[in-house]
């Protein structure tokens, strides 16, 4: 069964995967990130490699987290429906309303699948914008890059939070929990290392974050 699963996992993303061009410096950075992850020390793996540009490191990892969440959510989309998840929530105390500031200025209440569709499409548009995420060498990152990256990561966190609160039983049935936990732990260590998400925003998964952190000190 595990073979079948890994096969379906790689092909089933929610949105098209965002590829970093091979042969580019960012691709090298991604390969470096993957290699250090393999060492098992996640705290070390998220640190900025010597001599590298912080913006570029954050850009490469943001693309990678988008792809990971894309895949994780892709495995459970059939369980996340208008009827099962009429609102976008992370447990009973946290509900999210969607606004992107351009197309939808006033936050709207919508179902989780609709919200996540808006969210992932919005992230995709940011990642595809060469002025925000330049893939060409020597093209500088814009001045507002860090604030854009923070907004992307803050929103991607909400997809993890929704999966953990509303769909963890499905994740376990699919034997994906180790994959989800590793991905989320990597994500949290990364945003903690560079203070990218406000603590208040992380509240829906506060206990889990505490637990992940305490095992690793």
From TrEMBL:
It comes from the Eukaryota. Residues 1-11 have a biased composition (Polar residues). SMART domains: Mob1_phocein. GO terms for molecular function: kinase activity. Zn(2+) binds at residues 80, 85, 162, 167. It holds the Pfam family Mob1_phocein. Residues 1-20 are annotated as: Disordered. Keywords: Kinase, Metal-binding, Transferase, Zinc. The keyword Zinc applies. This is MOB1A kinase. It comes from Illadopsis cleaveri.
């Amino acid at each position: 069964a595990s073979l079948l699963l890994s096969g379906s996992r790689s092909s089933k993303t929610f949105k098209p995967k965002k590829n970093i061009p091979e042969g580019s410096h960012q691709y090298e950075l991604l390969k470096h990130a993957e290699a250090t992850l393999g060492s098992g020390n996640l705290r070390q793996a998220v640190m900025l490699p010597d001599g590298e540009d912080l913006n570029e490191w954050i850009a490469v990892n943001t693309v990678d987290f988008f792809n990971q969440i894309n895949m994780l959510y892709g495995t459970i989309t059939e369980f996340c429906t208008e009827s099962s998840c009429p609102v976008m929530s992370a447990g009973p105390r946290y509900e999210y309303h969607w606004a992107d500031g351009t197309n939808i200025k006033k936050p709207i209440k919508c179902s989780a699948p609709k919200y996540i569709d808006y969210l992932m499409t919005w992230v995709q548009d940011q990642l595809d914008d060469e002025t925000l995420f330049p893939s060409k060498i020597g093209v500088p990152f814009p001045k507002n890059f860090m604030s854009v990256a923070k907004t992307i990561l803050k929103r991607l966190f909400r997809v993890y939070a929704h999966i953990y609160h509303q769909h963890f039983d499905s994740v376990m049935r699919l034997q994906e929990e180790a994959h989800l936990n590793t991905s989320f732990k990597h994500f949290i260590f990364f945003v903690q290392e560079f203070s990218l998400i406000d603590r208040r925003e992380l509240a829906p998964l506060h206990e889990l974050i505490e637990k992940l952190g305490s095992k690793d000190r």
